[in-house]
């Protein structure tokens, strides 16, 4: 499923000047600029989440991601009162979904999903993602791979010109020191245990070639999963930007 990621994303319905995305500038706290920016980003997350909820139809099997943007998705789905069955990528998402009246069951016995919806920490112009800031990237990758459509929901600040560290990793606890010896630039997290017993860490080296780095991680014994998601896995990205939502297809 890995690919070289040289094709740029196609923006549906909008024009974006070249380069497609630029780093969002921090503004001075004077006049409450930072608070205003934060509120704007939260509104963008909400808008992207609502747009994704509208893609879900009665009878679907749905994968629910993890994170702050998905937290806006769950009430949007709950308000629609759909007859759907869901699997969650984390215990926290499962609890929040059930509070919204969404039916969530185990992933056992489910071979495929109609759609999976999740956030991302970074999205580059070719469709490569970094995910796993919350530590659920292994489950998120399994759910995304099982879905006919994987839809990513983000605010505009998650769209970046190029991917940058850190890249989350889940490592086996067995032989951990030996695994770390073969992984330069990797640092364990302070609270490093996943619900599945894995150890969370972050790679802080360069991400010059996402495909090459992903292949290196995949070939390293002791890595359960890494947080680089290839464009081939992504159906579309819904990105909130100011007052509207951009649809990016790859």
Tell me about this structure.
The chain starts with 9 loop residues before the first strand and ends with a strand. The protein has 6 helices and 14 strands. It is globular, with a radius of gyration of 18 Å. Helix 2 links the parallel strand 2 (61-64) and strand 3. The protein has a domain at 10-22 and 32-161 and 226-249: Rossmann fold (3-Layer(aba) Sandwich). The chain has helices spanning 33-53, 70-80, 91-99, 137-146, 176-181, 210-219; strands at residues 10-12, 61-64, 85-88, 113-118, 122-123, 129-130, 147-155, 167-171, 186-193, 199-203, 223-226, 228-229, 236-241, 244-249. It has 250 residues and is of the alpha/beta class. Helix 1 crosses helix 2 (70-80). Mean pLDDT is 88; it is low at 1-31.
Topology-level CATH name of the domain at 10-22 and 32-161 and 226-249: Rossmann fold
Proportion in helices = 25-40%
The first-level CATH class of the domain at 10-22 and 32-161 and 226-249 is given as Alpha Beta
Tertiary shape: globular
Strand percentage: 25-35%
Query: If classified by CATH, what would the architecture of the domain at 10-22 and 32-161 and 226-249 be?
Result: 3-Layer(aba) Sandwich
Instruction: State the low-pLDDT regions, or none.
Output: 1-31
SSE ordering: EHEHEHEEEHEEHEEHEEEE
In whole angstroms, the N-to-C terminal distance is 14 Å
What summary fits the major beta sheet?
A: 7 strands, mixed
Q: Compute the number of strand runs.
A: 14
Average the pLDDT over all residues and give the rounded result: 88
Question: Strand order across the biggest sheet?
Answer: 1-14-13-7-4-2-3
**How many helical elements?**
6
| Secondary structure category | alpha/beta
Q: Which value, in Å, is the CA radius of gyration?
A: 18 Å
Oligomer: single chain
């Amino acid at each position: 499923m890995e690919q070289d990621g040289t094709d740029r994303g196609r923006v549906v319905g909008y024009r974006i000047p070249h380069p497609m995305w630029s780093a969002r500038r921090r503004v001075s706290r004077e006049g409450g600029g930072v608070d205003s920016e934060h509120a704007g980003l939260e509104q963008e997350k909400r808008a992207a989440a609502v747009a994704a909820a509208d893609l879900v139809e009665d009878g679907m099997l749905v994968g629910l991601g993890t994170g702050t943007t998905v937290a806006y998705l769950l009430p949007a789905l709950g308000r629609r009162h759909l007859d759907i069955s869901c699997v969650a990528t984390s215990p926290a998402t499962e609890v929040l979904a059930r509070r919204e009246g969404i039916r969530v069951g185990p992933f056992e016995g489910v071979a495929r999903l109609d759609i999976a919806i999740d956030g991302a920490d970074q999205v580059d112009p070719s469709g490569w993602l970094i995910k796993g800031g919350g530590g659920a990237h292994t489950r998120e990758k399994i759910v995304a791979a099982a879905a006919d459509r994987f839809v990513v929901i983000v605010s505009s600040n998650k769209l970046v010109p190029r991917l940058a560290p850190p890249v989350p990793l889940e490592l086996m606890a067995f032989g951990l020191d030996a695994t770390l010896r073969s992984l330069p630039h990797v640092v364990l997290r302070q609270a490093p245990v996943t619900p599945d017993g894995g150890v969370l860490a972050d790679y802080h080296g360069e991400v010059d070639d996402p495909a090459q780095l992903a292949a290196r991680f995949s070939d390293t014994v002791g890595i359960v999963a890494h947080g680089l998601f290839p464009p081939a896995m992504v159906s579309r990205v819904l990105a909130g930007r100011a007052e509207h939502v951009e649809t990016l297809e790859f």
